[in-house]
Amino acid sequence: MNKQRLLLAATLALSSLSTRAAEDWVRYTAQPAGSQVRVDGTSTIHDWSVESRLIGGYVEFDPAFNLDHPAPGKVNARVAVLIPVRQLKSDKTAMDTVMYESMKEKDHRKIDYRLIEMTLKEPPKSPDAPLLFDTKGELVVAGVSNVIQMPVTVTRVEKDKLKFTGSTAVKMTSFGIQPPTKLGLFSTGDEVKLSFEWVTAKKEAAAK
Amino acid sequence: MNKNETAELNRRDFISSFATLMTMLGGVELITRASAQAADLETLVPFQVKCGVICLGNWGREIIATLTRLKTAQLAAVCDIYPASLKRGTNAAPNAKGVDDYRRILDDKEVQAVVIATPTHQHREIVLAALQAGKHVYCEAPLANTIEDAKTIALAAKAARRQVFQAGLQMRSDPQRRFLLDFIRAGASGKAVKAHAQWHKKQSWRMTSPNPDRERDLNWRLRKDTSLGLPGEIGIHQIDAMSWFLNARPVSVTGFGSLIQWKDGRDVPDTVQTIFEYPGGPQLTCECTLANSFDADYEILYGTDAAIMMRGPKAWMFKEVDSPLLGWEVYARKDQFYRETGIALIANATKLANLTEKATDEAASTSSPLYNALEAFLTNVNSVSTAVEDFTANFGADDKAALEKYVSNIKLQPAAGYQEGFEATHLAIKTNEAVLNGGKVALPREGFELT
Fold it and tell me: Structure pTM?
């Protein structure tokens, strides 16, 4: 009985510690203005692009990570990003229709990204200098997940705002998306370039 | 066949393929060949907007017929206070709920958008209620028959930033007209000299009715207390389009009206002539009659280098002998008009091999202006609705300014909004005033502004 009480007390204590630790994480949440994601592609006729200004999600840093004096190396962070597919638009509604269909938008309404690891490459050269990270994360498009690596730059835009900038190339077929073609008239290139600017603002630690 | 000919044919083939691709990618609609190759796109239904149509007269039923052909429309409800009209409307839209009070459509949370096709003087009450109910609104032009009502409607639409408001100025969404706009703005016709628009159709406008009360309701167009007459019912579209092409607002309008053919108790003229003066000298003459059909309807813009004639979905350019060579017109299709040769202007004409086809009476576009306008409306409703939904899901609805800024940055299909609707209505009202008084009416700049 005593052993059971001891075990329960220990569990509660650990749980409390764990919750406190989670609450101490510093959260930056996506902001409604200033962000942009763009997808650039090619075809046998001409290049194309789609873009959106809506990027949701958050970033959480371990309280041990000091943004003012960051040390190079692995950073304990959590990142979740989501982009509603239907907010990606070109200048042509017919092209958008084809794109949404190819991306199976009705079944997979968002593009999701989850960070796996994040490494600060070098100490900033000045207090205002951007921080350069190497990142590895899981990108989910059209319900298919791939691990991607991407350099990301973090810039402080205001006292409590961070802008994340990055770009990477991915293949549509890696996500089960068949590059659109049209009656032998043209075909789109498999590889597309994803680039983004994502503005987040600091928020007090969120409970898990 | 020499090498140059081979190269030219290849170039033309390539251009043809390119044109088809552009159509498929949402470019302006071309002639039937390109449309046919974009057929598989037509099997995709990217979204559907649940719509209601309010008032089911001839035009309301035309709207129903058009919405039925649009795959992005789901006709959920139709409304008319007159049982026979309601029955005809529900017959045309068997899946739609038929109601005799428009407020039942506005109360239906499932209905996202309404098309208001009531007599002009009834627009105000219904538009305001629809916007208040959170519906997207397509309101036929003119918006109203008084400036006060038009301004009230436009200001309410302006304030409803999360909703689409479209005025029924169909030419603003017409791919052919938008192509011509770019063409003209690029200086292809030279400096604007003058413009002319006409609409000739021998018809009475009077509709038969079973009793005097119904007669009064049905023939509202024939009374000047409820109708802006020919300037409001017909001229508004041509005057708006020509002002758009001239890129200017007129500074005055002089009008004349006569009742010649249909002396059946009506008090609106059946024949009107109007002259609009624009800054810098160009004048637009616009004439409409219900007493003669000769030469139907068209608009011509006269420039120092060329005249451009628009007839429905078609257009031609008549060049001056001293005008610069554009190059592509050498290959272009030509049509003969008595002693004049018209160079066919088709959307993306400078890129198309189909210009080399023989002259034909087939329409350049198979879509009616109403189809194009409603298609743009539905697309814009979807864009704005999904933008609001996705924004709110990610950032909540508390930051109204940020939400409205996000919505205002959404790329929309070309269409007449509240500003264009108000300006055109203001112009139609002043034109009718000039016609009824047989004189000149000044059009000060501030009259076009929404304050």
Answer: 0.87
